[in-house]
């Protein structure tokens, strides 16, 4: 479980990262913030590519940001988007695995990277889903993986 201070640090950093998506003025923005074992937070927003296939997701960017600072032991990843969701509304995200919640969870590619990070470090990762209505949901990454046979 994350402390209130850790949650606040993640959410504050997420809000700042939302302002830095590329390109500026994107209609939908996704940001993520990685909390490391040492207590540092590294956040980033998506970097959109016109090819779509080369777009870097917020979670990917946050992992790279932490790694660029020599920190690969991630204890938590917070995720936020500005998808237009009413309070409590279910996300329309095609990869949603959190049923009945107004959150945009990590896509399957990002869950794979988060899983690999968790496996390498040996540290169970917590996911903090946030939305612009001020709601949050905290859960272990393992709860989001389901029965999919993730590569070992």
Radius of gyration, Cα only, in angstroms?
14 Å
Q: Could you name the ranges where pLDDT drops below 50 across 5 or more consecutive residues?
A: 92-97
Strand order of the largest sheet: 2-1-3-4-5
Q: Tell the overall outline.
A: globular
* Named CATH topology: Cytidine Deaminase, domain 2
CATH superfamily: Cytidine Deaminase, domain 2
Indicate the CATH class. Answer: Alpha Beta
Number of strands: 5
Work out the strand percent. 15-25%
Description:
The chain is an alpha+beta fold and 152 residues long. The chain has a single domain, classed as Cytidine Deaminase, domain 2 (3-Layer(aba) Sandwich), CATH 3.40.140.10. Helix content is 30%, strand content 20%. The protein has four helices and five strands; from the N terminus they run αββαβαββα. It has a five-stranded mixed β-sheet with strand order 2-1-3-4-5, with helices on both faces. The longest helix has 15 residues. It is globular. About 4% of the residues have low confidence.
Concise overview:
The chain is built from 4 helices and 5 strands; from the N terminus they run αββαβαββα. With 152 residues, the protein is of the alpha+beta class.
Keywords:
152 residues, alpha+beta, Cytidine Deaminase, domain 2, 5-stranded mixed beta sheet, 4 helices, 30% helix, globular
